Amino acid sequence: MPQLKPFRDYDEHDVINLFTLKDQSDVNKGTFVKLTSGQGWVSTDEPFGDTQSAVGSTNYATRAISNRYIVQAGLDIAGSGDAPIGMTLYDLKETDENGEKLVFNPRKAAEMQTAISGQAVPVATRGVFLYSGATLASLAVDAGSVLYGANNGELHTSSTGKKKVGVALGAKDSSNYVLIRIDCDATQ
After folding, report:
1. CA distances from 68 to 51, 78, 93, 119 (A)
2. CA separation (Å) from 26 to 77, 91, 116?
3. Rounded Cα distance, 175 and 19, in Å
4. What is the largest CA-CA distance in the chain?
5. Contact assessment for residue 60 and residue 7, using Cβ atoms and an 8 Å cutoff
6. Please, what is the Cα angle at 33 between 31 and 38, to 5 degrees?
7. What is the pLDDT of residue 48?
8. ∠73-93-183 over CA atoms, to 5°?
9. Which residue, 173, 182, 178, is CA-closest to 89?
10. 42 or 168: which carries more pLDDT confidence?
């Protein structure tokens, strides 16, 4: 599962804040994402929607509708061979470390840099990040290694059937973190 350290360098103009992760509830920041087929951004989409998420007790999930502002345009976790549009800068979670629902505590969600289902998740398309992922941790990575999108929104060094998303700017440290530069060019 991907992880990002706070060390990062990116321009806010290279961050897209128009999409939410569809049908996901627990995604780490640093996950590469792609556009959901048929659910891109449209200027006429209504920002207020009916969600079937269980805001209160799960006993009422099928009978209660929770009206709240949600983003209609969707993202999915990128897989091997997909062309990711970028990497998430926030986690996507429903509850905090104590099991309390973050929808009732938006200040804590903001402090945790966490988006809640239906909310826009910031996606960086370019920048420099200190990144670690389970796939990359098991591979030999050196300065100049080209990085490709892999399964589960992670990175890989093998190009077979994968799209290039960046380059390593150094070797892995003792905690398996690598300084990477990503550039998810839409023309790939």
Report:
1. 7, 27, 17, 10
2. 11, 7, 9
3. 31
4. 54
5. no
6. 155
7. 61
8. 55
9. 182
10. 168
Phi/psi of residue 152, nearest 5 degrees = 60, 25
Query: Would you list the DSSP string of 108-143?
Result: HHHHTTEE-TTS---EESEEEEEEE-HHHHTS---T
Number of H helices, E strands in the chain: 2, 16
Distance CA 64, CA 13 (A): 39
pLDDT tens-digit series, residues 130-140: 999 888 888 88
Residue 24 has pLDDT above 80, yes or no: no
Query: Which letter does DSSP use for residue 36 in this model?
Result: P
Residue type, 93: K
Check residue 69 and give its pLDDT.
76
How many CB atoms neighbour CB 94 within 10 A?
Answer: 18
pTM score: 0.87
**Residues 6 or more apart in contact with residue 71 via CB below 8 angstroms:** 18, 19, 20, 47, 118, 119, 120
Residue 177 has phi, psi (to 5 degrees) of: -95, 145
Token couple for 169 = 């700017």
Distances (CA, A) of 9 to 151, 159, 182: 25, 26, 11
Percent helix / strand / coil, the chain, rounded to 5? 10, 35, 55
